[in-house]
Structures are given as structure tokens and as C-alpha cells.
């Protein structure tokens, strides 16, 4: 165990040095920024661990040399840019980071990003503007769910998946004027049809208010979060029925300060024989009901129930193919749609 930890530290250190020597180009536009980050071939498989603030790369290009070119193209209201006004200058600040470990751990590499502009004419400091304040509006939430590529850098270009390989299913909520929300996958099932009917055959993936059942029977897992409004379900593909597969999920946007037995994301850790809370393992007691029925809620949770938002999303069609099957698959590859 000590040797493995030592090797892990060495690998992280090597990657950090490689990133420190990387080429980073920043182009500041009127209301956005475009960043090109050239990385070594060794880091290309780990491009999904590179971030601009809270945002993943917009695109990854693998060069003929095997090196990678990571692109970030975002507007300043995104990615948690900090807007600062000082004298006659307006600046937007953020950080490029490489995070090989969960967000609770420090980044292995940090590179500051800043775009500076002339202060807009007629600008009034917020504390002098009687119309300014904190927005707590409830409308306008937009939910997303998509299948990512193997590098977790972009939406997958194919819906054909080898049996036993992993399907990274990304879900997020655009918060807009809301206070920060926690995105949860409350229930997910696999079905052979894009619409669920009372007679539909389904296979449970996530049940019991956020318990990842597939982490008990396979190697599926919720990946560590890098911001509260998104989550990645790293689902190991399986065969369900003879045809196409659809993933039906109930997504919930919730108060991040209120975690209880009905609002959670829990992985089963086989090595320890117990359930673990994704967002704070020290509170894993809320996952103990995953082996029974998760119904109880804290008083605060009941009060906040009216402030939560849910959305039913469908991902598919997905085509699971067995590599050992000699028959070639006749269906053309396409990106899976979401509704």
C-alpha cells in the first residue's frame, strides 16, 4: 500500500511538471475568452481532469505527434470567472487547473487567467445601485444529460458501445439566476424503449433516492465532482434485451447544504463492504438505508422540498455490442439523443 501511494505521488508530480512546461495561449475577446493549452502525449488520456474554473475543455485535438491541444472557449458569466473593477480597469479572473484527485484535494497544477478591459462608461458600483441584489428566482433551470467520450472531454461521437466497457453519462443543470444547486441522479433505469409504459421491462441502475445499484454488481461508479451542478455516472455497459438501449433518469436540483437519506449520491465500495456518500464520505451514514428503504428526511429537508426541481431525461438509443460476436453490426453509428 505504501509503495502504491508513493508511485501515485511520483506520477502526479511528473504530470505537474509536464503541465508547468506546457504551452498556454490566451485570447481575450469582448465578452469571452479562448484558451489553447498544449499538453504532452502522456496527459492526453487525462484531459478530462483539466479545468477552466468549473468548466471542462470545449474540445480536445490529438496532434500527429501524439500530443494534445486542449481548447477552452467560454463566456465570462460561465466557469465561475471573478469580475473585478479597480480604478479604470475591469478584469475577469480565473484559473486553469489539473485535478487528478477529487476537488477536496488541492490541484496538482494551477495557472492564472486574467482578461483586462477599460472600465465601461456609466458603470456604477453595485453598493450604490439601489436596483442590485441577490437573485433567488426559481424559474429558468435547464437540465442536460449526454454520453461523453472515453476521455471525458466532449460528447461521444458514436452510440455503439462494446459490452463491458464504460459509458460516461454526464448530467448537469444550468443555474442561471439561482443560488448554487446540487445536481443528483435520483432514479435511473435501462429500458428497450424511448418511452416508459406500465408494461415496459426495465433494469434498475440507480434507485432508492440516489443509490447506485450497479456499483454493487459491477464496476460502475459516480466519478468525483468538480462542481456541484454536474455529475458523471461512469456506467459499465451491460446487455439488456436484444435491441437498442435507453437510459431513463430522474434528475433533481437540490440545496447543497441539505443532504439526507432522500437527497444523495451513493457508491457501494466493495473493498469495505459499505455505501459511501459521493460528496462527503464523512456523512456516509445517510447511505446506510440503501440496503433497505430510504424514506426519512430531516426537518430542514422537508422545508426545502418545495424549492427543489426535477426533470425526467432519456438518453439513447445506445447499441451494446459483444466484441466476441463474429456477426458485424449493421446499424450505423450516431450520437445518442437526449430528451
From TrEMBL:
The keyword rRNA-binding does not apply. Residues 320-339 are annotated as: Disordered. It holds the Pfam family Zona_pellucida. Keywords: Disulfide bond, Signal. Residues 324-339 have a biased composition (Basic and acidic residues). It comes from the Eukaryota. Residues 27-273 form the ZP domain. This is Zona pellucida glycoprotein 3f, tandem duplicate 2. One of its GO terms (molecular function) is acrosin binding. It comes from Dicentrarchus labrax (European seabass). GO terms for biological process: binding of sperm to zona pellucida; egg coat formation; positive regulation of acrosome reaction. GO terms for cellular component: extracellular matrix. Residues 1-22 form the signal peptide. InterPro entries: ZP-C, ZP-C_dom, ZP_dom.
